[in-house]
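lol so apparently i was supposed to do this last week
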Amino acid sequence: RGPYLTFHADPFTVDPMEALHHEPDGLILIENGLITAAGSWDSLRNTIPAGTAVDHYPDMLISAGMIDTHVHYPQLPVIASYGEQLLEWLENYVFPAEARYADITYARAVARQFLSELLRVGTTTAAVYCTVHPQSVDAFFEESERLNTCMIAGKVLMDRNAPENLRDTAQSGYDQSAELIARWHNRGRQLYAVTPRFAPTSTPEQLDLAGALLATKPDLFMQTHLLENRSEIAWVRELFPDRASYLDVYDKAGLLRPRAILAHAVHAEEADFQRCHDTGCSIAHCPGSNQFLGSGSFPLFKALNPERRVHVGIGSDIGAGPALSLLQVLSDAYKVAQGLQTKLHPAQGLWLATAGGAQSLGLEHRIGSIRPGLYADLCIFDPAATPLGRIRAQTAETLADRLFALTMLGDDRSIAATYVAGQLLHKRNAA
Ligand code: GUN
Ligand code: FE
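anyway here it is w/ fe (iii) ion bound
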């Protein structure tokens, strides 16, 4: 019980505050992990089955759990590594860090930390890169299954331009992925993503086999990186001289379709957005990472052009992103939009991190909103939890102002609790 927020419309097509539904004294009824009813306390209080426990959050804002559409769990230990842009950062920090996941004991320890940190920041679903080692995927899904979180993850495919100990081959990558799909895809709430890291680290043969793998099941996910950094883009042009563009490399391999998530797309042009729209794939907007690595500013409102709308979700992109909290990532998204002379309304931001993220993953029938039939994956925002949030809360009068202050000033402290399939899995220590 408590005030809750959810969306009944898309805040990029109607007035953002009209799209948002605010129930000032609401009740969300949960049975067997699913939401069975949601509405005002007064209208539902008499329908509560006898013996039902009621958790009460009177001064909070209850929301659907947040959805991180692009993140690398193995990079958690190298978050905030100094001084480089994409390609040197990968060489110097990321590849050495990822080599450690040949050891499943290490992988299990980091997977556990990572998922616990995700819940602490109110994120209940994520699209996650593991490493090239199949055991890094087992370690991750084992822990996610234990928590009953809905996670999308996959083994990184990398058969060239990476250190020897991080390379598979086109065939071994295919075989290992096929095995992991058989073991994990649709097991409980776990979902598999075929994960070629990005064009430079896969041969054309490997990309074609990734496409062949996707062709075996229409509900598999695909995740990769796209058009992130200028040196990377020049390199792709050299490596694939007979392809019309970076995105064309993926398209020709059969990778573009619904449930394909392309991270960054910072330097995408109109033709790229058009092709994303035509193929139904999604973009993960990672503003914190793009600023941290100096990659550039993703033109969010161009991607969302209603004439040929592209699905967009929001991604922390840990370890290139310096924050796991999607509230902090939304604050970055606002500032990046401002720099492009556009305005990201807080309701639009929250939508990207919840219902819009779910839509971009093709999971809107399961998560991302507070609605009967969906999983009870929830986070409880406490707008007054941070010192500056508390000061601002005294003057913020409208819901829009409160929500904006939450997304600008909020972080892990702003999450009072997190529920996954109705289970309370995180509760913040009393302040
Ligand atoms: N491009 C290829 N690999 C990576 C990665 O791990 N992080 C980011 N930000 N970009 C990439
Ligand atoms: Fe990334």
